[in-house]
């Protein structure tokens, strides 16, 4: 049916009313957001803004429809006039079609352009708000203070109720006008406004009322909920644009803009869901598919099918299938009912009854140690010299006890301990599900048993490593570390009655830090060389002591006797230096010293060592020298006696014996002078032979 100008003027007025209402709502919410200092109010303000552009483009479209109708009426009048008027109409025809051209441009570019801008705005800004508010929600800041603490809740709630009623009434009024074909374009503005009312202003009202009972979580979560609705609505607009491109159209058919939400349209007419569904299908396929035989058959059996499906879903929600390794906790209205064993069990339908399953007969694993905090670790064997973690990651090394010194004196090489890395796995299982969940004994159970187990295991691991040095942890202590830790962790865990049993603890991959592995090898080599030198020195000492005293034991005994002798000599010397010394004690000490010296000498002689041999040689030399001296003394006495008995004979005899012994084996010349002549002068040249040469 051809519409006149008055029809579109009413639609233009309705669009203007919608624009003014939307503007008032936006300003009200914006002012309330500044007053409340609430991210939820700010998010709703941003959600309301695109509605202004939607109402503005609808006002332009229907206003241009009115101009187009006036233009068409004028063209019809000119066509019915005389020939002169017809000539004038032919000359002015191009000018009279300007309104229709502008209307076509609005449908071709205006409505899609506003749809695209609205979709980009909603998706982009909604995602940005979610990103910014998610952090504040996670750290708890938004939950603690979602609005101004000094907010007048009653006043804000009253203003929100007024805004909600105003928006709802205008949206329903405009939606009622869309029953006429000429006013169907108003559905886009009405659906967006009704969406703002129910998904924007109504959550603010609920969150504000929740603040009155000190519940801050509702308003805090709505601050993220509203941007999520913005993103979903933007995605719907994008899908509408894509589907609209491929949808077949009839000539002069109303083009439904993409910002006309099908979901929000249900809120404007909740009593006709089936009709909206049918219209959506018909609109999308381009013909009345809802009147086909299949859709008619489906519509007749739809209600029974829905009832049967609901009954099946309710019945299935009452059945609980517990696997062999599981147990299930069944609750009714949040209260504990029973623990279901493996097999088939029943409960109240959802949401009255709920069943939560737990793996009680399976072994669970807690990864602890120096690499437990890393999400990704290096696969394969861990050697001391290769990388233990990926580049950019750090190991959390464990402190050990100081290493004892090599002399085994009870002292340590350093005051501080060393650092080691280790991969430790604690395997456990649930033995009592009621204790694990704290059912019936909340004062004895932990809120998070596994977290408690992790804390206890970390504490016992730290204590175990802190009481064992590095050498022990790499050798002997590592053999029993797992069993020791399992017992300690279980003993501590039993104090809390959390229904957990530690099955096994493995300590593997014990290694020094990767950047000191080479130095650690050098230290180990140095310790080995030190032990080698010590053993060599001990062998040399044993050889030396055995050579000196025959055996090491004999040498140590002699050394002890010598030490005692030195103490006696020192005591005797001290007494002699005193003026009032006890003479009896001095004599006693002299006797003891003599006995000790004799005892030491006997030990040296009996040992068969070099010391005993030297003593025997000294004694032999002493007797040799003494006997030779005694023999010389006796010979001297006999010579004196011979001289006294023959004073002339004995000297001549000694002289001649000396000459005989001296001139033996030497050439001799005898010169006998003539009787009565003087003795001749004889000159003898007796040169000494040169050293190294022959003499004359």
Describe this structure in words.
- Helix content is 63%, strand content 9%.
- The protein is built from 20 helices and 9 strands.
- The model has no long low-confidence stretch (mean pLDDT 77).
- Strands 6, 7, 8 and 9 form a 4-stranded antiparallel beta sheet that branches. The protein has a 3-stranded antiparallel beta sheet with strand order 3-2-5, with no helix packed on it.
- The protein is of the alpha+beta class.
- The protein folds into 4 domains: 5-291, no CATH class; 295-362, no CATH class; 364-512, Band 7 domain (Tetrahydropterin Synthase, Chain A, 2-Layer Sandwich); 526-608.
The arrangement of helices and strands along the chain is HHHHHHHHHHHEEEEEEEEHHHHEHHHHH
* Topology, number of strands: 9
Count of folded domains: 4
User: What best-fitting shape do the alpha-carbon axes yield?
Assistant: elongated
> What is the C-alpha radius of gyration, as a whole number of Å?
60 Å
Assign a percent range to the helix content.
55-70%
How many angstroms separate the termini? 172 Å
Quote the beta fraction.
Answer: 5-15%
Give start-end ranges of low-pLDDT stretches.
Answer: none
Look at the structure and give the mean pLDDT: 77
Total of DSSP H or I helical runs spanning 4+ residues: 20
Summarize the structure.
The chain is of the alpha+beta class and 696 residues long. It has helices at 5-36, 39-80, 83-96, 98-138, 141-144, 153-177, 187-212, 217-246, 262-268, 273-285, 293-317, 433-437, 449-466, 470-474, 476-493, 517-549, 552-576, 583-607, 610-645, 649-663; strands at 319-322, 326-332, 335-340, 343-346, 353-359, 364-369, 398-399, 419-430, 500-511.
């Amino acid at each position: 049916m051809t519409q006149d100008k008055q029809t579109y003027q009413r639609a233009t007025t309705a669009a203007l009313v919608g624009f003014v209402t939307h503007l008032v709502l936006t300003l009200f919410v914006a002012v309330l957001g500044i007053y409340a200092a609430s991210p939820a109010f700010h998010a709703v303000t941003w959600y309301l803004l695109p509605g202004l552009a939607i109402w503005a483009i609808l006002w332009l479209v229907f206003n241009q429809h009115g101009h187009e109708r006036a233009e068409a009426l004028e063209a019809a009048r000119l066509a019915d006039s005389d020939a002169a008027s017809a000539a004038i109409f032919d000359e002015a025809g191009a000018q009279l079609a300007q309104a229709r051209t502008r209307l076509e441009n609005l449908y071709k570019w205006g409505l899609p352009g506003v749809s695209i801008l609205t979709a980009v705005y909603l998706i982009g800004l909604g995602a940005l708000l979610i990103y910014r508010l998610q952090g504040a929600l996670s750290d708890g800041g938004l939950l603690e203070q979602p609005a101004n603490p000094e907010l007048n809740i009653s006043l804000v709630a009253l203003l929100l109720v007024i805004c909600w009623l105003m928006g709802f009434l205008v949206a329903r009024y405009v939606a009622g006008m869309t029953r006429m074909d000429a006013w169907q374009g108003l559905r886009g503005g009405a659906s967006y406004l009704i969406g703002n009312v129910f998904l924007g202003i109504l959550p603010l009202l609920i969150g504000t009322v929740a603040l009155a009972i000190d519940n801050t979580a509702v308003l805090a979560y709505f601050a993220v909920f509203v941007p999520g609705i913005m993103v979903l609505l933007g995605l719907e607009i994008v899908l509408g644009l894509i589907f609209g491109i491929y949808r077949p159209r009839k000539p002069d058919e109303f083009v439904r803009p993409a910002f006309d939400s099908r979901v929000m349209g249900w809120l404007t007419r909740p009593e006709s869901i089936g009709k909206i569904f049918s219209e959506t299908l018909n609109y999308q396929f381009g013909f009345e598919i809802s009147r086909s035989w299949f859709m008619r058959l489906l519509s007749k059996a739809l209600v029974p099918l829905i009832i049967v499906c609901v009954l099946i879903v309710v019945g299935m929600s009452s059945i609980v299938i517990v696997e062999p390794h599981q147990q299930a906790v069944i609750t009714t209205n949040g209260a504990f009912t029973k623990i279901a064993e493996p097999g088939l069990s029943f409960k109240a339908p959802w949401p009255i009854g709920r069943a939560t399953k737990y793996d009680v007969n399976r072994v669970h694993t807690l990864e602890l140690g120096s690499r437990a905090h890393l999400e990704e670790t290096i696969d394969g064997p861990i050697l001391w010299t290769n990388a233990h973690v990926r580049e950019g990651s750090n190991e959390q090394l464990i402190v050990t006890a100081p290493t004892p010194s090599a002399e085994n004196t009870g002292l340590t090489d350093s005051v501080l301990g060393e650092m080691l890395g280790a991969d430790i796995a604690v395997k456990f299982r649930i033995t009592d599900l009621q204790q694990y969940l704290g059912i019936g004994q909340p004062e004895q159970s932990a809120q998070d048993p596994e977290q408690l187990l992790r804390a206890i295991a970390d504490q016992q691991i730290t204590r175990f490593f802190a009481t064992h040095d590095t050498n022990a942890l790499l050798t002997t202590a590592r053999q029993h570390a797992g069993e020791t830790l399992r017992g300690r962790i279980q003993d501590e865990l039993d104090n809390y009655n959390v229904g957990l049993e530690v099955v096994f603890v493995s300590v593997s991959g014990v290694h020094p830090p990767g950047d000191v592995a080479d130095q650690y090898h050098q230290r180990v080599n140095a310790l080995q060389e030190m032990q080698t030198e010590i053993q060599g020195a001990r062998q040399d000492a044993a050889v030396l002591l055995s050579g000196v005293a025959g055996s090491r034991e004999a040498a140590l005994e002699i050394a002890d006797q010598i030490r005692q002798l030195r103490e006696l000599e020192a005591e005797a010397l001290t007494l002699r230096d005193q003026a009032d010394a006890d003479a009896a004690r001095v004599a006693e000490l002299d006797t003891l010293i003599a006995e000790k010296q004799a005892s030491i000498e006997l030990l040296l002689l009996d040992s068969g060592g070099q010391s005993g041999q030297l003593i025997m040689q000294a004694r032999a030399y002493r007797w040799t020298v003494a006997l030779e001296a005694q023999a010389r003394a006796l010979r001297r006495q006999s010579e004196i006696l011979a001289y006294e008995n023959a004073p002339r004979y004995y000297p001549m005899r000694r002289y001649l014996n000396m000459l005989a012994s001296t001139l033996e084996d030497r050439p001799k010349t005898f010169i006998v002078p003539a009787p009565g002549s003087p003795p001749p002068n004889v000159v003898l040249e007796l040169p000494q032979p040169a050293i190294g040469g022959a003499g004359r």
